Amino acid sequence: MTIVGRFEIEARQYLDVQGRALQTLPESAREPELLVSLYRQMVLARAFDQKMLALQRTGQLGTFASGLGKEAIDIGVTSAMRAEDSLLITYRETVAQLARGVSMLEILLYWGGDERGSNYAVPRTDFPVCITIASHCCHAVGAAYAMKLRRQPRVAVCMIGDGASSKGEFYEALNGAGTWQLPVVFVVTNNQWAISVPRKVQSAAQTLAQKAIAAGIPGIQVDGNDLVAVRQVALEAIERARAGGGATLIEAVSYRLADHTTADDASRYRDADEVAAAWQREPIGRLRNYLLGIEAWSKSDEEALLRRCADQVQEATQAYLDHPAPAPAQMFDQLYASLPAALAPQRRQALAKGTADAAGHAG
Amino acid sequence: MPQVTLVEAVNLALARAMADDAEVLVLGQDVGTDGGVFRATVGLLERFGPERVIDTPLAEQLITGMTIGMAAEGLKPVAEIQFSGFGYVCIDQILNHAGRMRHRTQGRISCPMVMRTPCGAGIHPPEHHSESPEAMFAHIPGIRVVYPSSPRRAYGLLLAAIQDPDPVVFLEPTRLYRLFKEEVEDDAKPLALDTCFTLREGTDITLVTWGAMVHETLQVASRLEQEGLFAEVIDVATLRPLDMDTILASVAKTGRCVVVTEAPRSGSFAAEIAANLAEHGLLSLFAPVTRVASYDVVVPLSRLEAAYMPGTERILDAVRKCLAFG
Q1: Which of B149, B263, B152 is CA-nearest to residue B211?
Q2: Positive or negative, the Cα torsion across A194, A199, A201, A204?
Q3: A134 and B CB contact within 8 Å
Q4: Residues A109-117: what's their mean pLDDT?
Q5: Which of B128, B129, B139, B215 is an active site residue?
Q6: Which residues in chain A have their CB less than 8 angstroms from residue B109's CB?
Q7: Do residues B92 and A132 make contact, with C-beta atoms less than 8 angstroms apart?
Q8: Rounded CA separation A257/A217 (Å)
Q9: Closest chain A residue to the Cα of B164, Cα to Cα
Q10: pLDDT tens digit string along A259-292?
Q11: Over 90: is that where the pLDDT of A361 sits?
């Protein structure tokens, strides 16, 4: 017998579930002020997430997918990116959007049913939320190809969930990224549940990271509740991509603490015990414990932070509630670069409220 | 001026666009070394190099999806899907992403891409190589669907499609790829999109068609002329957005209309044109609008192709009934 290939998958963790360092922290986590600032972002994002849920429950926001429990993944990955890189996300990456500079108002507008929420003032080159699963993996490959072609030192970072790792477009994208050695990093949030389908039904593969092997790119697993580990692994992958070293697949192992969306009831398909156990591993408490342990954070810091977060979220909520609805012309005005003649009669009809004017001919 | 075939005109337009704009690139299976299975991209690799003439893995969703990613980054990619029967998996990317990117981001990101694919029956190929998917693409908001029917229009419309700031699905009639030649000046001049081309003027009946069926329809018009009947022949060319004004103006003149398509009849783009005529041109009509289409069946393998496609006899028959009505 001849062995023609051998492969292994590394798993990375720096902080244990109590927030104690398991090993010397990497250079990227030695500055306590930086960790404190990332911790603040995580807490703010969670406060915002909880407000969005409350707004949905009171009929003031549409269906919304909570990112509860994945704060370390989103903040770890985005803090490893540069402003000029491009982020491609799904509907569960509100925390990452906030960290990239998308405003709370824009995020609220989007989930409140207003396309203007995807016209980010910052960051202009990040892609809009992708709802259809894994299709944006291919966009990331194209964006990365453009960056490489233009000799730009930029990286495309594509975030997906464990369910997306079952899709053809995910495999096609990984394969293409490997073929051309493109500056793209795929981050799979393995939160154990694709709506009601558990990870073990999703794939017989031992890890999701090993799906990289067939594409000829590195795959690595990381504790997705450990901000230090996620940030370090993302930094390594993103900087290697920037330096021309090609693509990486990161599997960040975490747990979806919330329902799939506000239209879902996860108690139908999973045990309360499992969720309670997952809360013991969640990322924010873990980092807080570490920061308290090195005396970079205090109880009064925490109280002041929570107050400030509540104010900031309330201010954004008010701005959202006060925002005027879009005009019906919006349906037409950005569909094409300029309005095709065939659409003009339909646009007129949409604007002429209450008239019986017949719609124009075919668009 | 050189005499070129339709597929040579496509090649000419691609080379011209790439020479004039460094942001234009082509990608797809076999487009590089092989020059495309129909040779539409022949010579481009040598001229423009492998970074801009990209042989891709065999993966249509990747090709379409990465084209969208490139376009979102501001490049002008032209993707080739080898046969339109393999392009159905691309409809998800075109519908859910390409057609919506500008609207979804309110103009922040646009999608200036072209997806080219050969269409239609009549070349005796294996299964899935003879599809006519234009109605499926033409149903999608936010995109353009362009279907040239001659070398000159292929050249000018493809240049226009590449320069267009929005996504274009560019359907190429396989049957006409090498059927005839036309003088095409490589003058870098695009033809107008969103507009029909009136190929023959006439007063007795309007024949509306696109793609390969333009060929048979023109033959029918010539036959009618020998009998002293003058058909106006309209090549729709851009199916979406549809220039219905030209068709309505013609029908206002002739009072009769036959729409010819190679696609199955039900839900075809011919039905869209017929419905528009019923809605907006009823008072001009002396006879019901008639569709000549393929049957509502799977495109057969080669031995039944001729029976499936609407040839000149079926078109003539419909025209005579339309002229005799009332």
Answers
A1: B149
A2: positive
A3: no
A4: 97
A5: B129
A6: 125, 127-128
A7: yes
A8: 31
A9: A337
A10: 999 999 999 999 999 999 999 999 999 999 999 9
A11: no
